[in-house]
Write the structure tokens for this entry.
Amino acid sequence: MRWRIFPPNQGAPDEGLEPPDETGNKIVRRPAGRWALPYLYRIIADEGYSAALQRLLARVDLNQGLFFVYAPAGVPADRLRLLEFGGVVPVKWISPYEAQLSDIPQRKLIRYLWRWLNGRGKPSDAFASPSQRFLLGEDCMWSPEDGSSPEEPPHFLVHTGRLYAWTTAQDGYELLEALVYDLDRAYPHLLLCGIEACVPVLDGDYVRSLLSESEQEYEVPLIVFGAYDAESYLVWRQRRQAR
């Protein structure tokens, strides 16, 4: 269950800010354009993500990709551009100051990530041998004072005082769900990297080396960003993955 608590002066939206009527409420993939880039750069730079994660993202040319958001079909195109602000995806108001967020965008995102992990999309031609795919994210709310990393799935590891989670298709659909549920918060926004790597054994040691300064052969063809004040998501895909 996903919730949002509003301060007393920011309760249920005024009539003019209500979501579109039911005929336009179906959540679909809506194309986004280069207008999403400033939002992505701000999220990467300002939301407290680790230097290791920023280093992974620094090698990605975001201009060489396509974007889409999960949003209601009836939301005007100019409203989609306001990625920082909520009120796009319908919510269920529990009280004047408490709303239950729709889980439809999250469910659609998880299904999309599952297809990608299982090979949907053209594999990289940059590798001479078969590559493996996995998703990597950071739990920015964790600190060393919280103790050791969680033992329950998905895979967790601590690197230079930061907690990371990762999963593969071999781990199963439920572990993918667990990873998204664990990392999807209002702040910092969800940030997941879809990584394709040419590696014989994909394990915690490899992920740790990837997060270090060591050189590895990999690409980041997929990135997921939280959007619309945690109501939904913006997805970037490398052009060769865009199908």
